[in-house]
């Protein structure tokens, strides 16, 4: 059963669902036998909502994200984007992973522009309006403090800088959905916190409906409107936390009583097998 905690400081506005899981199940085959991973997951993500998924290792968080992207077929039930079941990879999705994988022979700017060359609907537009898109990319790079590194190559960037460039790349085609799979897991604690503020800024600017998978509960609370906790495999959603901290959020908020209480609630609901 899903419980709910609401630490209301301001009422949340209900928005139309952009993304819906309708009684979703998923299983893989392991040594020739079916292995159920996800069972009976139903949830709904509103327009411009920021949602995080947390849960024990191996519970199926990445699998859930892959079903949204259309890269993993849905086993049972439906995952719907704007009311339509997702049956193939979505072009209006931006994705950032733990490893930023920038192409080493391309500059930062060229790496950010890459999705426009790959997504067929944008390819022609890029050809016709290259300078417009370059300005958009430079704008994004400036938002994340990389304006002076646009002509540098990945080998000349730190880990945090690469991840910032990767976030810009995920947003360059103005996706309707942003999917983030532990994007800051490889960064040191201070850089990671800087990235929270920066991602918050990018999200506020793009108003992109976002789903973050993370093991870091503070990160989930800091960034999210809603945090979903998955149980151990075969996983169901075991807890939903509505985060009503005012925005923009600051790192100081992580030390408040409200924040600590939410952290404790989440911690108590993460079960290990
Ligand atoms: N393509 C696949 N084929 C078979 N099994 C898979 C496949 N992908 C994932 N699994 C298994 O499904 C389970 C869930 O994997 P998934 O990566 O979705 O979990 P996760 O919660 O993201 O894990 P972590 O937190 O450790 O990154 C794991 O036991 C994994 O080994």
Automatic annotation (TrEMBL):
Residues covered by the ABC transporter domain: 19-257
One annotated GO molecular function: ATP hydrolysis activity
Domain of life according to the entry: Bacteria
Key words of the record: ATP-binding, Nucleotide-binding, Transport
Localisation per UniProt entry: Cell inner membrane
GO CC annotation, single: plasma membrane
Family annotation (Pfam families): ABC_tran
Name of the protein in question: ABC transporter ATP-binding protein
């Amino acid at each position: 059963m899903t419980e709910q905690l609401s630490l209301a400081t301001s009422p949340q506005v209900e928005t139309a669902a952009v993304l819906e899981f309708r009684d979703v199940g998923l299983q893989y085959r392991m040594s020739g036998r079916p292995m159920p991973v996800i069972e009976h997951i139903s949830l709904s993500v509103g327009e411009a909502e920021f949602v995080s998924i947390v849960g024990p290792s191996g519970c199926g968080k990445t699998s859930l994200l892959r079903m949204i992207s259309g890269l993993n077929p849905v086993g049972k039930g439906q995952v719907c984007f704007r009311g339509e079941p997702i049956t193939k990879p979505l072009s209006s999705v931006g994705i950032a992973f733990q490893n930023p994988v920038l192409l080493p022979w391309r500059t930062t700017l060229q790496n950010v522009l890459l999705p426009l060359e790959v997504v067929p609907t944008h390819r022609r537009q890029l050809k016709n309006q290259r300078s417009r898109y370059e300005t958009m990319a430079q704008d994004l790079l400036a938002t994340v403090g990389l304006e002076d590194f646009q002509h540098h190559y990945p080998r000349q960037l730190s880990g945090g800088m690469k991840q910032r460039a990767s976030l810009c790349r995920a947003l360059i085609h103005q996706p309707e959905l942003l999917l983030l799979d532990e994007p800051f897991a490889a960064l040191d604690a201070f850089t990671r916190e800087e990235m929270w503020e920066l991602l918050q800024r990018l999200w506020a600017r793009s108003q992109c409906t976002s789903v973050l998978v993370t093991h870091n509960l503070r990160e989930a609370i800091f960034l999210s409107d809603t945090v979903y906790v998955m149980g151990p495999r075969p996983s169901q959603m075991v807890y939903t936390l509505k985060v009503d901290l005012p925005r923009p959020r600051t790192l100081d908020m992580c030390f408040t009583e409200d924040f600590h209480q939410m952290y404790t609630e989440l911690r108590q609901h993460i079960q290990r097998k």
